[in-house]
Specification:
By secondary structure, the protein is an alpha/beta fold. It has 8 helices and 11 strands. Keywords: ATP-binding, Nucleotide-binding, Transport.
C-alpha cells in the first residue's frame, strides 16, 4: 500500500492526567472516507486540531500530505461545525468562499483578480449556491451557510478534507446535500476525507473505515468491523447492543456507560 496522505504513528494526546488516546497508528489513503466517531469528550475534534497544527501531540508523530501539521497548508481543507452567524454580518457568500483561497494574506495571491473571481464562481456553482452567494451570509439559513463553507474548503483543491461535525444543526435535507458534496469531491478528485460526527447514518453509504474513540481507547476498521455489539462493548466496558434496521445502525447501551445523546451520537464535542 502506498504512503497515506495522513500518517499518524504511535500518537497520544493527554490533558494533564487525562489520556484521550494513545498508541494511535493511522494511515489514510487518497480518496478514502474515514468517519471519526465517539462520545462527547473522546478527542475527535482534538484529532483534527492536531492535523491542522493547532494542537501538539503528547507522543508520537503525524504527517499530512508528507509534511508535519502546520497552519496555512493549502493541501488541507477544513469544514467547521455549523454555527449561526450574526445577522448583521455584511460579509457576502462569495467573500466567505474567497477566504479559502487567500484569506491568510493580502491581495489576490497568485491567481490575480480575474482568475480569482472565476474560481470563486466555479465553486459557488459546484455547491448550488448561485442564487444566494451575493447575499450577506448572516441572513442565510444554516444549510446555505454550510454549503458556502464546503465551497470555501474546496476552493484550494485540497488533498485532505477535515470535517468537524459539518452536519450538526442541519435538517435531513441539508445533511444529505452537504454529505453528497463532500463525497463527490473525494470521488472526483481523490481527496481523503476525515469526517468527525456523532451520527454515522447520514454518511454510512460513503464510509470506508471508522475510527472510534472512547475511554482512552480506539478501534479502526470497516463499519461492519467496528460498529457491532462485541467491539463497542469492549470499548465501553459494558454491554452495548448494535442493531441494523433498514440500512441504518442503531446503538443502545447501559445508561451508566452512555448518556442518551452519546448513544445516538448527537452531542457536540467540547474538548479542545
Amino acid at each position: 500500500m502506498s504512503r497515506g496522505v495522513v500518517e499518524i504513528e504511535g500518537a497520544g494526546l493527554r490533558f494533564g492526567d487525562r489520556v484521550l488516546w494513545s498508541g494511535l497508528d493511522l494511515d489514510v489513503q487518497p480518496g478514502e472516507f474515514l468517519a471519526v466517531l465517539g462520545p462527547n469528550g473522546s478527542g475527535k475534534t482534538s484529532l483534527l486540531r492536531v492535523l491542522l497544527g493547532l494542537q501538539s501531540l503528547s507522543a508520537g508523530e503525524a504527517r499530512v500530505v508528507g509534511k508535519a501539521p502546520g497552519r496555512g497548508n493549502r493541501k488541507v481543507g477544513y469544514i467547521p461545525q455549523q454555527r449561526a452567524m450574526d445577522e448583521q454580518l455584511t460579509l457576502r457568500g462569495t467573500d466567505l468562499v474567497g477566504l479559502g483561497l487567500d484569506g491568510d494574506r493580502w491581495g489576490f495571491g497568485l491567481l490575480g483578480a480575474g482568475k480569482r473571481r472565476r474560481r470563486i464562481a466555479e465553486l459557488v456553482e459546484s455547491v448550488g449556491a448561485e442564487s444566494y452567494a451575493s447575499s450577506a451570509v448572516g441572513r442565510l439559513s444554516g444549510g446555505e451557510q454550510q454549503r458556502l463553507r464546503v465551497a470555501q474548503a474546496l476552493i484550494g483543491e485540497p488533498e485532505v478534507l477535515l470535517c468537524d461535525e459539518p452536519l450538526a444543526s442541519l435538517d435531513l435535507t441539508h445533511q444529505r446535500v452537504v454529505s453528497e458534496l463532500i463525497d463527490r469531491r473525494r470521488r472526483e478528485a481523490g481527496t481523503a476525507v476525515l469526517f468527525v460526527t456523532h451520527e454515522i447514518n447520514p454518511i454510512l453509504s460513503y464510509v470506508d473505515r471508522v475510527l472510534y474513540l472512547v475511554n482512552g481507547q480506539f478501534r479502526i476498521g470497516t463499519p461492519d468491523e467496528v460498529m457491532n455489539s462485541q467491539t463497542l462493548s469492549e470499548l465501553y466496558r459494558t454491554r452495548v447492543e448494535v442493531l441494523r434496521v433498514g440500512g441504518q445502525i442503531h446503538v443502545a447501551g447501559a445508561q451508566s456507560a452512555l448518556c442518551e445523546d452519546e448513544v445516538h451520537h448527537h452531542v457536540d464535542e467540547r474538548v479542545s
